[in-house]
Amino acid sequence: MLLENGNIRLRAVEPEDLDRLYSWENNTLLWDVGNTRNPYSRYILKQYIINADKDIYENKQLRLMIVSIPTGETVGTVDLFDFDIHNSRIALGLFVDSAFQGKGYAKESVRLVEEYVFNFLKINQLYCHISENNIPSVRLFEQEQYQKNGILKDWIKTIKGFENIILFQQFKEAYVKKIES
Fold it and tell me: Per the confidence metrics, is the pTM higher than 0.90?
């Protein structure tokens, strides 16, 4: 089944996700990673959930919740955004709650998203920006055979100063070769 394997399911955002999203979006420790500058109200998040029914082609973005099939717990989110149909590319954002990290949820989510983007949406390129200091994420995308195609110097400002960003890209052709091997 698309967006599901034996361990996780990527599903649409539901009204029941409001409290969890409120907690994650307003965790100031995560703001540097997500490029957030201000808190979100429950009202704004509720409106977001209500309008999440729009098609990815209309919104140019899609948020999916990562759910552990064995436990039923929602463990994180996948964001597809900056959808550029003309240039056949889309950006990937990935978040796994700290309580669930190190259990393979991120890797499985990346693989399901690749299948969705390349086989269903028929997009040529999936890309992401990862801080050089985010070693677990850098390793994940290296292990998943994403191409490291550039460094954006002093790209994000954090409490500790400026950080470089690595541009990772996965192309449909490379994805097909990875799956076939």
Answer: yes
The three-state (H, E, C) secondary structure of 93-134, written as one string: EEEECHHHCCCCHHHHHHHHHHHHHHHHCCCCEEEEEEECCC
> How far is C-alpha 141 from the chain's CA centre?
12
> What DSSP line would sit under the chain, residue for residue?
-TTB-SSEEEEE--GGGHHHHHHHHT-GGGHHHHT--S---HHHHHHHHHGGGS-HHHHS-EEEEEEETTT--EEEEEEEEEEETTTTEEEEEEEE-GGGTTSSHHHHHHHHHHIIIIIIS--SEEEEEEETT-HHHHHHHHHTT-EEEEEEEEEEEETTEEEEEEEEEEEHHHHHHHHH-
The domain over range 8-180 is classified in CATH as 3.40.630.30 = yes
Q: Which two tokens stand for residue 69?
A: 């099939």
Per-residue confidence (pLDDT) for residue 33, from 0 to 100: 64
d(CA 98, CA 108): 16
Give pLDDT < 70 ranges for the chain: 1, 30-37
Integer Cα distance of 12 and 72 in angstroms: 14
Chain-centroid distance, C-alpha 179 = 20
Q: Which of 77, 112, 72, 115 is nearest to 96 (CA)?
A: 77
